[in-house]
Fold this protein.
Amino acid sequence: MLLEVRDLHVEFRTRDGIARAVNGVSYGVDAGETLAVLGESGSGKSVTAQAVMGILDIPPGRITGGEVIFQGRDLLKLKEEERRRVRGAEMAMIFQDALSSLNPVISVGDQLAEMFTVHRGMSRKDARAKAVELMDRVRIPAARERVRQYPHQFSGGMRQRIMIAMALALEPALIIADEPTTALDVTVQAQVMELLAELQRELRMGLILITHDLGVVADVADRIAVMYAGRIVESAPVHDIYKAPAHPYTRGLLDSIPRLDQKGQELYAIKGLPPSLTHIPPGCAFHPRCPLARDVCRTDEPPLYEVSATRGSACHFWRECLNG
Amino acid sequence: MPDGRHEEEQAIAGTGMGGTMDLGVDEAETLEKRPEGPDGSGPQDKPRSLWSDAWRDLRRNPVFILSGLVILFLVFISLWPSAITSGSPLKCDLSKAQEGSQSGHPFGFDGQGCDVYTRTVYGARTSVAVGVLATLGVAVLGSVLGALAGFFGGISDSVLSRITDVFFAIPVVLGGLVLLSVITSNTIWPVIGFIVLLGWPQISRIARGAVITAKQNDYVQAARALGASNSRLVLRHIAPNAVAPVIVVATIALGTYIALEATLSYLGVGLKPPSVSWGIDISAASPYVRNAPHALLWPSGALAITVLAFIMLGDAVRDALDPKLR
C-alpha cells in the first residue's frame, strides 16, 4: 500500500461543543490506483484529506487518534518540517476552485517555477524552462507565451490545468484531488478529468478523488469509499457499487441521480438532513433517514461488515440492501 | 417605378459589396496583428496590479498632488534649511524681542529676539525627523508583532493581543509626562522611542486583521499543501496582500506623531531648548500672545499644515487602495 489511513479521528472545537468530523476512517490507495471518496458536504471527506496532507487548521482542529502510513512511515509522528518536505514533493493536492487557489499577484509561470526553486533548489532560469514544459504537458496552448500571464487571464479549465501542473511538478507518488471539477463547465470537466487520469496512469501515481459527483466517479475510479457523518459506510470496487449497493445510503445516492428513462417523474431524494457533527445520532448515524432502520440501528453502531474480500458495508442489514 | 426599385436594389447591393470588402480588409489587418494580442505581449493585455491601479488614481487626485507637494517641500527644507534661510535659529538679539515683520525678517521676532522665520524653517527638520523615524519604528514593530499574532493564532495571538490592550490603555500625554520627565537626554531619540512604544499597538491590530484576512485565501492553503514553509507563506503570499492597510494607517499616523512631538515639547518633556521645535516655540510664545501673536501663529500654522498634509495624503492613499470605493 502506498497510503494507508487507519482508524483516523479528527475533532473540531466549536462554540456548540466538539464537532466530531472524522470518526474512525480507514482507507488505502495503491500506486496507480484511484480511490474515490464520496459523500455529502460535512461528511468528513475533505477533513480526512487535510489530515493526510497535514494542512488541517490546528486549532480548532485536532487529530485525536489513528495513523496515516505513507510509504512505510506514520506521517502523524513526523515533525512539521519533515511533513512540509513530504508535501508537494511526495504528495500533492488539487483544490476545487483554481482561481482562488492560485495567487492572483504572481504570474502562473513563477508559481510553477517556485515548485522547483523551493523544493529542488533549481536556478530561476531552469525552473522557468521546467514551468513551460509542465504547461505543455497539461496541454495549455502557447505555453511559452502564456507562462508570463496571471491567473485571471486564463479560463476556468486552463486554471485547473495549471493547478494540476503544479501538483504534478515534482512527480509525487500520491495526489489528492478535492472536487477538482466541481467549479467547471460539464464539457470542461470531462477534459480535465481525462487529463488527470491520463497523467496518473503515465506517472503511476495513487489518486484520491474527493467528490460528490457520481458521474465523474464511474469513469475514473477503481474503488469507492462512501462517507457519512465522518465514517466510511461502504467501501467497494467501483463496478460492484453501481451494480448493487450494500448500504442504504449508497443506494439513496445512486437513486438520486437524474436518469433519462425517468423523464417526467419526481426525482428521488434521501429524506431528512445530514446530522450535525456536534450531535451525531447514537447507533448507526444514518438511522433517522434510513428506510431499513430498525430498533437495533438506534442502539448499536454497525461495524464495517465484510461483504466480500474486497468489499465492506457498515449496515446491519447489508444483505437486505444488496438484494434490493 | 419598377425601374427605380431595381436601381435602389442595385445601390444597396453595391454598398453591401463595398461593406463586405472593407470588412475583409479590416479582418486581414487584425489577423496580421493578432499574434501579439492574445499572447499577452500586447500593451492592453499587460496585467494591472492593485498598486499600478492605485497610482493611476492618485496621479489624478488633487488632494494627493497638493499634500504630496507640501510634504516634498517639508522634506526639502528639513534636509537643506539653509537653502531658504541664511540665518541661524540660535542667533537671537534680545533688543529686537517681540518686534513684528520687517525687512529680512518676514515673520518678525519672538520673545527672545530670535528670527521666527528661521526658527520655523529649522523646526520642520525636527518634526519630519521625529514623524518619519517614529512611523518607521511603529510600522516595523507593529506589523511584525501583528503578523505573528495573526498568522500563528492560538496562544501567541491571545498573549500578543492582551499586551496590545495594555499599551492601548496607557494615556498618551500622561504616559509622556511620566516616562519622558525622567529622561535628561535632549535628543529626538527618547521622543521617538516613546511614540514607538505607545504607537505600535495601533499598527499591530491593523496588521493582525489584514494577515488573518489574507491567510484565509485559498491560495495560501494551496501553497501550504504544495510544501511552502511558514516564512514563505508569510513573505510571498500573505504580506503583499496585507501591506496596503498598514501603509494607509501609518501615513495618517505620521501626521499625528508630529503633533504629538509638538505636544510633548510644549509640555516641556519632549525636546528642550536649545533644540529647535515647533512645540518649543509655541510654548515659548504663548505667554505673550497678546503682544506678539505672530510668534505663536507661524510655528502653529506650520504645524497645522504639516499634520494636515500627512493626514490628507493618508486619506488619498486609502481611497486609492480600497477597491470598494471605486
